[in-house]
Design brief:
The protein contains nine helices and ten strands. By secondary structure, it is α/β, with parallel strands linked by helices. It has a single domain, classed as 2-Layer Sandwich (Chloramphenicol Acetyltransferase), CATH 3.30.559.10. The strands form two sheets. Strands 5-4-7-8-9-3-10 form a seven-stranded mixed β-sheet. The protein has a three-stranded mixed β-sheet with strand order 1-6-2, with no helix packed on it. InterPro entries: CAT-like_dom_sf, Plant_Fungal_Acyltransferase.
Length: about 325
């Protein structure tokens, strides 16, 4: 289930409390093509490997811990032994609009204005990508330097950082097949940039402006061809637990970024003894803190703020909260 399906579930449950009519979720399935049947299991596995090779953000998990779990390197401090924490950084709409205007003005003055307008999502993702990466690279030592892309606090031009965007493709591909679909329609789209550019962007607004269109271009590459290739790979998997994503959350130059901004916060509830119909806030429940993850939390349509939930190592979170240029854009911190 992805974020949009979670929103549908919340709307249905809220309607149930109001004794309202419920016509969702549906049982519609995505049937893009008739599955090919292989008599030889080896042929199926070979086809899966051929398709997986065309989807570089995915990898195979020999321990069958998937689907879509990160593939951990076999070295370094075990993830469960790393001290982790989470905080919510609150950004007012006014500050986000100011950030968007800032990066747009720098892009325009440099003559490299993107063909599509900057969004608050891309501006916030770029800001977070830059400052979180610098905080993690400077504070974390959980993997041997030889296994990190960034082995020093001032990485060179060959060091690559990755922003893993989670893209909802319902409006980007096979719209007729997903009109009433209840299931997972999210795929990763990875923005890559030299880590040295991210470090520069922490102190130079013109460098920050250069990152924003890279994120937008990455997301816009998620079209019908992109989606079909990955769905074909998923459909050919002999066992879905084989499918993993090609990163280790302990890598300090990797950040996952997602938004649930529009999912479920406007559902109206009728709960006896509760005087309001809509929630003041929606929080994500989890069994443990993540590492290198960013999520824009749900908010009502008329909300004047956005809440960004970050889960990092304890030392990286401390470094981030002491980053004055990052905190300049933050209204307050929860947690």
């Amino acid at each position: 289930m992805d974020g949009e399906s979670l929103g549908i579930f919340l709307e249905c449950l809220a309607a149930q409390t109001r004794q309202g009519s419920i016509d969702r979720p549906s049982e519609q399935k995505i049937a893009l093509a008739v599955s090919k049947h292989y008599k030889d299991p080896g042929e199926l596995r070979a086809q899966f490997h051929r398709l997986a090779a065309k989807c570089p953000e995915f990898t195979l998990l020999p321990d069958l811990s998937g689907p879509t779990q990160p593939k951990l390197l076999g070295v370094g401090t075990p993830l469960h032994e790393i001290g982790r924490t989470g905080r919510i950084f609150v950004f007012s709409n006014g500050r986000l609009e100011a950030l968007k205007r800032l990066v747009t003005s720098h892009a325009s003055s440099s003559g490299s204005s993107p063909t599509l307008p900057t969004t608050c999502y891309c501006a916030l993702a770029a800001l977070t990508f830059a400052h979180v990466t610098r905080a993690r690279v400077g504070a974390e030592r959980h993997l041997p330097a030889s296994r990190c892309n960034s082995s020093m606090e001032n990485p060179g031009p060959t060091t690559t950082a990755q922003l893993w965007n989670s893209v909802n493709w319902r409006a980007r591909a096979f719209q007729a097949a997903t009109r009433d679909y209840f299931g997972n329609a999210a795929l990763p789209a990875v923005t890559e940039t030299p880590a040295c550019r991210l470090f520069a962007a922490c102190g130079d607004d013109s460098e920050l402006a250069r990152i924003v269109p890279l994120i937008r271009e990455t997301i816009d590459r998620v079209n019908q061809t992109y989606v079909h290739r990955r769905l074909a790979m998923l459909a050919a998997a002999p066992d879905p637990r084989l499918i993993g994503v090609r990163y280790d959350p302990r890598l300090p130059e990797v950040l996952t970024f997602n938004t649930w901004r529009h999912f479920g916060a406007d559902a109206a509830w009728h709960i006896p003894g509760v005087p309001v119909a809509k929630p003041d806030a929606i929080r994500r429940a989890h069994g443990s803190w993540g590492m290198g993850t960013a999520l824009i939390l749900p908010a009502q349509a008329e909300s004047t703020k956005q809440e960004l939930f970050l889960s990092l190592s304890v030392e990286a979170m401390e470094a981030l909260c002491n980053d004055e240029r990052w905190m300049h854009w933050v209204d307050r911190v929860i947690g």
